[in-house]
Amino acid sequence: MLTPELKQKPAAIGFREFVAMMALMQSLVALSIDAMLPALTEIGKELGASQANDSQLIVSFLFLGLAFGQGIYGPLSDTTGRKPSLYLGFALFLAGGLLSLFSTDLKVMLAGRFLQGLGLSAPRCIIVAIVRDQYEGPEMARVMSFVMTIFIFVPAIAPTLGQGILVVAHWRAIFAALIACGIFTLVWLAARLPETLPLERRIPFSLSRIKNAIQEVCSHRVSIGYTISLGLISSAFLGYLSSAQQIFQKQYELGTLFPLYFAILALCIGGASFANGRLVMRFGMQALSRWSKRISTVLSLLFFLYVLSVGGLPPLWTLMAYLMAILFCFGIMYGNLNAMAMEPLGHIAGVGAAVMGALSTLISVPCGILIGLSYNGTVIPVISGFTVSGILIVFVMHWIESAPQKSAIESDFSE
Predict the structure, then answer these.
(1) Which of 37, 166, 350, 358 is deepest in the core (most CB within 10 A)?
(2) What confidence score (pLDDT) does residue 286 get?
(3) C-beta atoms surrounding 199 within 10 Å
(4) Alpha-carbon distance 347 to 296, whole Å?
(5) Where is the signal peptide (predicted)?
């Protein structure tokens, strides 16, 4: 049960409402992605996609917008405050939703999806800054874990919602539902969330300040190292996400049961985030991340070898067992890596969150697109993505922890 016991700079609204609002804003990203999955093939056919894998771009272009947008909203929120930047993001999201709703070919659809991603990068980036405005260290990790716990139920049910809409209406109704959800969230945000960045802490907008902040983030081993690790995790996850509909609905012929299997896997991430919220205060961020990294990498290597031995077509139950374990490990790592990357950046939380989000997304999008477009009727590309990203994360986190002089976050939470 969520308890309002984190008393460090409490929000004016209640703790539960604060977490719920942050989770809903974060969930718009997942809803905009996962509600589309059952409709990808239908959308691609109607809008003239030349190849089956081209429909994956409807997912990937939203991530591309997320990557570019986060570099804008972080510095903007440091100057104008968090809420005005969120208002701009929601305006772009709603405009992109309308463009997608009325699209007549794939290019217009992709333009709308990019615009949606550009808008959604505001809450995706600024939520981290808002939480960092009020909490730090393990407390921030705990809040982010609770946000992720609630957020993860959206991808668990979003494909079912999308499938349900397809049963009674055209796929365009999915975009109408997204627009309605965006309007509801915007009204709740405007009415209830206080501004978390007071006037005395705002920083005038300047390109030199942004340049200096980027240099600071990129030169800090802890921040850049964990940001790269987040990008590697996200690249493997995006590859899986882009291919999930084809793998489950076509390769394993699950049809309308696809949302159920997708929900089971999504709940593994949610369960991990909730468990992390309970465990992080006891064991620390680094220890939990370290063990999750080790387990996921070893499992990926072993399962990759097994998948090769069966020609890329493992029994469904083995694939599900593997993905449940891997996504649970990712759920443990995600909130902790975010918090550890942001820990040294409290004095530049807005631009720090922007740089961190933009860099991690710019790493994940091309790699995730490559994994997704490599889908060849087997699970080899997806499992390869998890395996390679796991190995690279091992090296990156070893590089972070082998710094000659440990930063405060590393010394406070080392084993």
Answers:
(1) 350
(2) 82
(3) 7
(4) 33
(5) none
